[in-house]
Structure to design on (221 residues):
């Protein structure tokens, strides 16, 4: 069964460094998403992406964040200058009809 | 703004002891209500999508139902492998985002 994949599974970085989280959505899906989950808290929406542009973003998704679909299969989330509070699990999702399917996540730790 | 409230926050059941998890929601124009299962350190795993009041869906020991204000996830004769956090989420109006509840952490004891 097709699934969303994410790399790396874990990432440790120093505050102020740039990180790129990578995702391969399910191949015939057209809508792509990033969410995050801080330990013990709700899953929170960051951004949605359709037809090579951002279709919706939350207030969390500020100028430090960007997304890109560099080729026909990958979807990336870049954090330009990481902060301690960016430490969280980051989930990629892709959608068919109304249902979003999630990847296994990247655990980001900012020191 | 969409809101999702789940109860209880935690539930401990004996193996075989059936129960229900509740999800209350407030949205403007429901497009879909979703149930996911999340194991520790993993991504949400899709279980069900419900679209309109009165709809029901089943999968193995799980059954999801929907009214205009809430959804229930019924677990019949649970097994230890059903232990996980169950997340409820909604999508509404013309928005792409899905709004999640905090989840119910279920523990099934042998």
């Amino acid at each position: 069964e097709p699934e969303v994949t994410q790399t790396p599974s874990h990432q440790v970085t120093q505050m102020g460094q740039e990180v790129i989280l990578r995702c391969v959505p399910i191949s015939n899906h057209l809508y792509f998403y990033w969410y995050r989950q801080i330990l013990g808290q709700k899953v929170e929406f960051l951004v949605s992406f359709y037809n090579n542009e951002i279709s919706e973003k939350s207030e969390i998704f500020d100028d430090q964040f960007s997304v890109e679909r560099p080729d026909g299969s990958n979807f990336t989330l870049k954090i330009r200058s990481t902060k301690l509070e960016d430490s969280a699990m980051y989930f990629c999702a892709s959608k068919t009809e109304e249902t979003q399917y999630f990847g296994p996540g990247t655990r980001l730790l900012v020191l | 703004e969409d809101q999702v409230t789940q109860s209880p926050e935690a539930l401990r059941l004996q193996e075989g002891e059936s129960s229900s998890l509740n999800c209350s929601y407030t949205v403007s124009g429901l497009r879909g209500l979703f149930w996911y299962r999340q194991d520790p350190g993993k991504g949400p795993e899709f279980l069900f999508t419900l679209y309109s009041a009165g709809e029901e869906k089943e999968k193995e020991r799980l059954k999801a139902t929907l009214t205009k204000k809430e959804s229930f996830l019924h677990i019949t004769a649970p097994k230890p492998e059903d232990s996980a956090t169950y997340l409820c989420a909604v999508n509404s109006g013309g928005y792409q985002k899905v709004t999640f509840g905090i989840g119910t952490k279920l523990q099934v004891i042998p």
